Amino acid sequence: MNDLTVLELDALAEIFNISVGRSASALSELTQEPVTMSVPVVHVMPIHRVIELLSPGIGAERLTCVSQMFNGSFSGEAMLMFPENSSLEIVRLMLGSQVPIEQLSEIEQDALNEIGNIILNACFSTIADMLQDTFSCDLPELTVASVDEILQKPESEQTVLFIQIQLALESQNLEGYLAFIMGSGSEANLQQALRGFLEGVQ
Amino acid sequence: MQLFERALSVLQSGVMILDEEYRVHFINRWLNKAFDTSEDLQDKALFDHYPELVGSRIHQAAMQALTSGLPSLLSPGLNRSPLPLFRGQGARRERFSQSIRVQPMMSDDKCFCLIEVQDVSSMVRREALLNKQAEKLNQMALTDELTGIANRRHFNMMLERELRRSELQGTPLSLVFFDIDFFKQYNDHLGHQAGDKCLVAVSDYLRTQLQSYGYQVARYGGEEFCIILPGQAADVAEHLAERCRNEIESLKLKHPSSSVAPVVTASFGVATRSDTQPETQTGLILRADNALYRAKLAGRNRVVVAERQDKELS
């Protein structure tokens, strides 16, 4: 797709900022802990670039990934990823476990799945509101694997909306990643929807 | 009744369909029974019937499904029992932990949401049990079975932690090693059970004494014990070792085969990591052990302090 303009990227960043703001409130209510989330930057890039970007920082550590397939005027796969250690920390803080955990038990996996679902749903409903669209999506699925395994898709040139998010929970700052992998044809539709949104704003 | 309807009616988990007004379009037998009411919930407005659920996570999930077409998951870890559902009869009736999925559905251009409920109480109970067992095993791995004090593994962990802290903070760290004089002969003469009792008596006594100072005593081996003194220099450690030596002698445990005294005594070695000199864990332990050995050579029932690390400069 043609590169998004600065305004279009800004609009996206704003949309995601609102989305994570909403999910932070939902998570705070759920866990009775103050949770804040922010979105520093939104990138648009092909998948292989995302893998290149993430690999040095993550190294051999695995990623915990909650993904939901989505369908609308643009379709694809939405993912929320945290380095495995961060997700252990998140679960420990939100479930109030006393014992330090090394592996995710079934209960903890379900909890992470729900956390991912809350954040991804907030993104979809905000995007739907702002861009006057509707989406349907599948129930969340949790995988724990390396960067390569999670992001290895048949088309490494597929465009990804890649967003770094900062999650602050009980004086801990954790970094996670949102990735919206767009199916072919979707990128053009997204760009069109963003243009429509910006025109509406003007 | 259609085969599908019959299947839903004998399903051992809950299925409920709400329409756009949150009215129960369908509810299967299992779920109807689980709700704490003798009424049939079919066609009832769910949130009028249960006003306490208004604004709750399940309400929000249903709303998201009906208005935005998005599915939700309510996990038992974060939502123990979102719906008022019960299992069991009479006195054993209890609200159970649930795993819930909410999915949007369309039919004839109308929006519905499907709520699927599972009873996960046994999973929750099993995990709580596993956690408790894991905690217990952790504890056991660090405890000496006979005396109940810290074992060598725990001691090594504590020493590593205190050594790191003393390096970071630039504070001294002292280590006291001691062992019971002629313990082998005690065992041979009075039997192993008596030997065990002697070890327990000594460690019990010291454990309570040292607790008030905030020091931990650990069992390093057969009749060998050790004490870590964080932030303390050699003089304080020597003083403490002397006190312990005295207290053990004052326990007056009869020791017929000791050539040092008629009662149980112990020999002590003290080593200190200075606040300026770096030292490894092994190095510090070796110096304390060496001092203990010299205490034995010098006649037992005494305290010997290891030489300062930087003594060769003086």
From TrEMBL, chain A:
The keyword Acetylation does not apply. GO terms for biological process: chemotaxis. It comes from Oceanospirillum linum. It holds the Pfam family CheC. The keyword Protein biosynthesis does not apply. Residues 7-43 form the CheC-like protein domain. This is CheC-like protein domain-containing protein. GO terms for molecular function: hydrolase activity. Keywords: Chemotaxis.
